[in-house]
Amino acid sequence: MITIPRIKILKLIFGSTFLISFVFSGPWPGTLPGIEIGSGLPAGYEPSGAVWHTQLDKLFTIWDNGMVSMMDYDGTNITSWSVYGDLEGICLPDPSSDFIYVGLERPDDGIDEFNITTGQITRFFDLTPWMQSVDPNLGLEALTFIPDTASSEGGYFYAGLQETGTIYIFELPIISSSTDSTVIFIDSMHTGLVGISGLHYDQEHGLLYAMWSYGHQLRVMLLDGTILAAWDLPGDSQEGVALWEGLAPGEGQIFVAEDAGEVWRYDFNSTCDITIIGSGSVNLAPDPPSYYGTNDTLTAVPDTGYQFVEWSGDLTGSQNPAVLFMDYDKDVTATFEYVGISESQINDPINANEYLGATLLSGPLLLPDSKNCKVFDITGRVIISDQIKPGIYFIEVDGEITQKVIKIK
Known about the structure:
The protein has one helix spanning 343-346; strands at residues 11-14, 17-20, 35-36, 47-53, 58-63, 67-71, 79-82, 86-91, 99-106, 110-115, 120-126, 140-147, 155-161, 166-171, 184-190, 196-202, 207-212, 217-221, 227-232, 238-244, 253-258, 262-267, 272-277, 280-285, 295-302, 306-313, 322-325, 330-338, 359-361, 373-377, 382-383, 391-397, 400-407. It is mainly β and 409 residues long. It has 3 domains: 11-267, TolB, C-terminal domain (Neuraminidase); 272-338; 356-407, no CATH class. The strands form 8 sheets. It has a 6-stranded mixed beta sheet with strand order 1-2-15-14-13-12, with no helix packed on it. Strands 29-33-32-30-31 form a 5-stranded mixed beta sheet, with no helix packed on it. The chain has a 4-stranded antiparallel beta sheet with strand order 3-22-21-20, with no helix packed on it.
């Protein structure tokens, strides 16, 4: 095993090629232990890649000895196909089609188009003019597809070279032709960490999750190479990664394929616990939050007579709404303070035939200067508004009783 040093983030750009250096990684954010779901795969199966099929609700895995498999999220109902070659990556450009695309490391680095209905390879895209490794066992090791409307083919393939950690970007004629095998090289991204072994693109949030088996690390990045977070991976020999939204909102999962013969599923959905000081509420978007590595927007909503003051805990400042990066589970406190009853809150007359509600008051009673206002206690006496003590009072505005106030302190 190669020992990888971990230093602070540094990103440089040379021409059109990105260079991303090492980055500190933190503890695994998902739940531990995970659930091993690969025990039903064929004997000797060494999972080397994974992708979740959103149309079929199935997990697809590959074996580097030449096999594609399909299973339910819990590892049951397995179907397998024998496919020639050292399979190391898998992706799903179009869930509505019959095709998945499989990355090969040997005999040549490239991509197979595989028809899951017929179980046949329909064409091969040769990537060896660009993806070359000194050690043939350290070639193409990771593959994902990133939809992009700028591409006439619906998007781009991102392929990781294990020996250098470089991610190569290609456009393939998967829409314009069913037979053409022309490859267009677009760009490359040097991650600065050798041993890349898995890629997954989260289209909903525009995030690239990249895995390294040598450093046992999972990163979440923007497509320009900006690293948002990095975590230590549980397990060993990790060679495939796939995210799944789960059976219900807030139940996001991550699948990790290990070359040692296992497929693990971990809870990978972040949480945000809210504490309120004062009187108000906080809206989350999305609610519940999504995968680790995504953003959540928090909006503080003060109750009548209160205003939002600040955030504290894992979110600070007074910006409202505020964006919170969910690299881990978060605890946030929203503080509201009482500012009094505004003119808009006491302007509507009370209907004598309706239940007379009340406003609880814990601070000064603020009345609109533009109105003729009086405050009465329960005996009918007029009270100076800034001298009221704990008790029950009625507010008269321009001759009409508009509000009942209970002074509590």
